[in-house]
Amino acid sequence: MKALVSIIMGSTSDYNVMEKAAKFLDEQQIPFEINALSAHRTPKEVSEFAKNAEERGIKVIIAGAGMAAALPGVIAAETSLPVIGVPIKGSFDGLDAVMSILQMPPAVPVATMAVNGALNAAVLAMEILALTDNTIKEKVHNYKNTLKEKIVKANEEFAQIKFDYKVN
């Protein structure tokens, strides 16, 4: 089995956030890999990773980084694969990371998630993969239906809650 998605984080301390993406992909049975690479501490390794990812069968890269958050942009500069950036909350409530990932120059796009938004990054990666894989497309539809069912069930439960002035 070859990885389709690569989850990269700038530091091992980012794992508690990026683990949400790994757990989701694992639940959806989508092959992935997970590694730590730092744009500032291991720039040569980041460059080699990005240049070789497509050749290794990777289709989407999820890159999480905090503070200066250069990792997603550096990867996007060296590959034509879609890169999804996850700003990790650190200093300034993660706003520094958001701005670093969001403000990419023309022709070097990075899809930017919310602060600590690794789960949404994994869902977006699955949706990207679904464009060319009908099995994954079915998983997307099933997942979205599960979300709908949760809300329907919650509203049924809310209907049973009684208050003196509740009208529904």
Structural write-up:
46% of the residues lie in helices and 15% in strands. It has 6 helices and 5 strands; from the N terminus they run βαβαβαβαβαα. The protein has helices at residues 15-27, 43-52, 71-77, 95-102, 118-130, 134-160, and strands at residues 5-9, 32-36, 60-66, 83-88, 111-112. A 5-stranded parallel beta sheet has the order 2-1-3-4-5, sandwiched between helices. Strand 1, helix 1 and strand 2 (32-36) form a beta-alpha-beta unit. Helix 1 packs parallel to helix 5, helix 2 packs across helix 3 (71-77) and helix 5 packs across helix 6 (134-160). The radius of gyration is 18 Å and the shape is globular.
What's the SSE blueprint?
Layout: E1 5-9, H1 15-27, E2 32-36, H2 43-52, E3 60-66, H3 71-77, E4 83-88, H4 95-102, E5 111-112, H5 118-130, H6 134-160
Compact overview of the structure:
This protein is 46% helix and 15% strand.
Observed structural traits:
globular, five-stranded parallel β-sheet, 46% helix, 15% strand, 168 residues, alpha/beta
Mind describing the biggest β-sheet? 5 strands, parallel
What's the average pLDDT? 95
Strand order of the largest sheet: 2-1-3-4-5
Order of helices and strands: EHEHEHEHEHH
Quickly give the structural class. Answer: alpha/beta
Measured distance between first and last alpha carbons: 51 Å
CA radius of gyration? 18 Å
> Considering DSSP H and I runs of 4 or more, what fraction of the residues is helical?
40-55%
Helix count, per DSSP?
6
According to DSSP, the number of beta strands is: 5
Categorize the overall geometry.
Answer: globular
Detail the poorly predicted runs.
Answer: none
